Amino acid sequence: MLIVQKYGGSSVGNPERIRNVARKIVDRKRLGNDLVIVVSAMGDTTDDLITMASQITDDPSEREMDMLLSTGEQISVALLAMAIHTLGEEAISFTGAQVGIMTDSIHTKAKIVKVRGAAKMRQELKKGKIVIVAGFQGIDKDENITTLGRGGSDTTAVAMAAVLKADECEIYTDVDGVYTTDPRIVTDARKLGVIAYDEMLEMASLGAKVMHSRSIEMAKKFGVVIHVRSSFKNVQGTLIQEEDAKMEDVIVRGVALNKDEAKITIARVPDRPGIAAKIFKMIAEGNVNIDMIIQNVSEKGYTDLSFTVLKDELKKALKVIGTIARDVGAAGVKHDENMAKVSVVGVGMRSHTGIAAAMFEALASKKINIDMISTSEIKVSCVINSRDAEKAVKAIHDKFKLGDKKVLKEKVGAAK
Amino acid sequence: MLIVQKYGGSSVGNPERIRNVARKIVDRKRLGNDLVIVVSAMGDTTDDLITMASQITDDPSEREMDMLLSTGEQISVALLAMAIHTLGEEAISFTGAQVGIMTDSIHTKAKIVKVRGAAKMRQELKKGKIVIVAGFQGIDKDENITTLGRGGSDTTAVAMAAVLKADECEIYTDVDGVYTTDPRIVTDARKLGVIAYDEMLEMASLGAKVMHSRSIEMAKKFGVVIHVRSSFKNVQGTLIQEEDAKMEDVIVRGVALNKDEAKITIARVPDRPGIAAKIFKMIAEGNVNIDMIIQNVSEKGYTDLSFTVLKDELKKALKVIGTIARDVGAAGVKHDENMAKVSVVGVGMRSHTGIAAAMFEALASKKINIDMISTSEIKVSCVINSRDAEKAVKAIHDKFKLGDKKVLKEKVGAAK
């Protein structure tokens, strides 16, 4: 079997952990498998590099940040290769550039457009070597080093699995799978055996930290089954895969929480045709990711436009949006950093009604005020004040009886 | 003018020093120059990376060491680019791979065979950008990352100056030039205004730490005039250039000392034709650099073969040579780690006699025993016990009156 494994930063956080990971890899290799390993930067390396940059400048060039941060993964692949050598197996490490991970040129959050190095990797596998690839990084057409943004190493792993048509894609992490909700908030949260790509996509974009949306999108596109599991415990994790009929028996798969939300309101935007289009085009050009959007008529001829952004993009967003607001003749820009978004997700919702109502009921029972609402086929999200976040998650998790084993009917058929 | 500058590890040892270097670079740029900057890894970075590797294995793969160590320079080029940006100038950093520094595949001491990125660098210079290149690294034809060994960043700088036909190549270091001998040993050691390539080559290969031989060889080959100067003091340093008639007035340019020598003797090698050739071929294949060689007849039909190696290559050398000794039926291998080599160097020696005799006299006057002797057109070297090293250097420096200004007649004509 050809297996792609990805180890996150905490799994390779120090030399001892690197040796442990090497041992796991070698054991798996000796069962007769071909292995491609994707590794993140060691524990605090990325933070240390960011600190160094911040001692030089408050506003580093994104190209140079990518140049800087990509060294983190390069260090860990080299050390992991050495650790595997000491166990008597052959291994060879590669940077993103060396296995031809081609991306666009959006530094700090580049997207993979092609992987050129499949033949090269196959050649090394054929020689019996374990192939180790630096996660999180690639190069653009001019050979500038790019990084893939949050969860980038997961995306690298899925891309490798897709291009090599791997039999398995295992994502090793510090949790042992995907849960109905964050177990630190709700003690009876349950580990899911399987979850559909679309559900995981919603969970990820809604704040579940396990996997990043981009890697799931890519897995869905190329039909890569992802196995999320623990680097520390040898137990079955959660399979992320194409949905099947059985999955619809479960109405709500999980409850997601994102506490890192901020709300921005552009007040008194003149209500002319095409003005919203103009505003959102400018926001997109400013490279700001916005999430929920709500438009209210504030008074005749004017409208208030609210939307949410990730808290750590707030500064950048306000800079861009301040300019836009002046441009379109709005009255001003307000923001609130203390927002949280709580969501329920499940492909089963498509064939059920009343999910939103049940969720609002759960929130009302705890006297939690809802600020914004957004729904899709398979999710309902509410933006609330972040001080109520945990209370809201608990109430909703209870309401849908997600801690109750009988409710979760799916079996872990594909699990090995 | 197009100027190549190289800053060593101590010059960019911390964020504050990086900012200082950036300031110097920007000042120089604003005088109307085009600048290509070559940078080493920050201060202790390389040592820290080596320590990490040593926590994983005693015997790291050289390919993976190169992968690991090359991150050091990548970090410093990114940070230096950021620091230049804060001063309002444009700068762009490149890895060795990105400017096409092609090397052979001898990991940890690769040789540059070609630089492909001249056009790319010129293009960036034309845009008004300061080009920053990671020293010490390149890639081989299969895109493996290689490193150039000791003094590798100097070699990178000279290669850049050669391929770009730069007007100047400045090597910034923590000393302010090349001295007649190590000023820490001899207090009246004098800074040289100029030194010929061949003299500097001998000085370097004999232990003067300022510049590494490979960079001088390359400078000589391409006629690059090197200006070795201090990163901390703004004073004229030493020019390394083609020798001219005037230089021959000075008989001895300097005294070099290498305390990191070890001597290996292969005892009772059967004295058959071709056996020395066989031994040295095997040593070369084992990638061991040997220096002085002496052969003595020990008894009829047998010979003792002695040579020196750098102390930190002794372990590797003994491994290779042990095998060879068994192969050729020698009696055994002995070694002595406490050796030093003291040398006098000067192109003027070609037209003078009696230099060796004067040197032996100086050593004899201090009762220092000479173990091995080697001479060339422009140098005389003696291997002695390392406990006598400093005493020997002082005696020789005095003997040739190198501390006396009147003896050093050359003027710093070319200096700016």
Tell me what the structure shows.
The structure is a homodimer of 416-residue chains. Chain A is an alpha/beta fold and 416 residues long. The first copy, chain A, has two domains: 2-174, 3-Layer(aba) Sandwich (Carbamate kinase), CATH 3.40.1160.10; 256-399, VC0802-like. In chain A, 34% of the residues lie in helices and 27% in strands. Chain A contains eleven helices and 18 strands. An eight-stranded mixed sheet of chain A has the order 3-6-2-1-9-11-12-10, sandwiched between helices. In chain A, strand 11 and strand 12 (238-241) form a beta hairpin. In chain A, helix 10 crosses helix 11. The longest helix of chain A has 25 residues, at 62-86.
Q: Briefly, what is this?
A:
With 416 residues, chain A is α/β, with parallel strands linked by helices.
**Number of DSSP-assigned strands of chain A:** 18
CATH homologous superfamily of the largest domain in chain A?
Answer: Acetylglutamate kinase-like
Q: Quaternary status of these chains?
A: homodimer
- Nearest-integer average pLDDT of chain A: 90
Radius of gyration of chain A: 23 Å
For the largest beta-sheet of chain A, the strand count, sense and barrel status come to: 8 strands, mixed
CATH structural architecture of the largest domain in chain A: 3-Layer(aba) Sandwich
Question: What level of helicity do the residues of chain A show?
Answer: 25-40%
Order of helices and strands of chain A: EHEHHEEEHEEEHEEHHEEEHEEHEHEEH
Unreliable spans of chain A: 406-416
Task: Find the structural class of chain A using helix and strand composition.
Answer: alpha/beta
Looking at the structure, the CATH topology of the largest domain in chain A is: Carbamate kinase
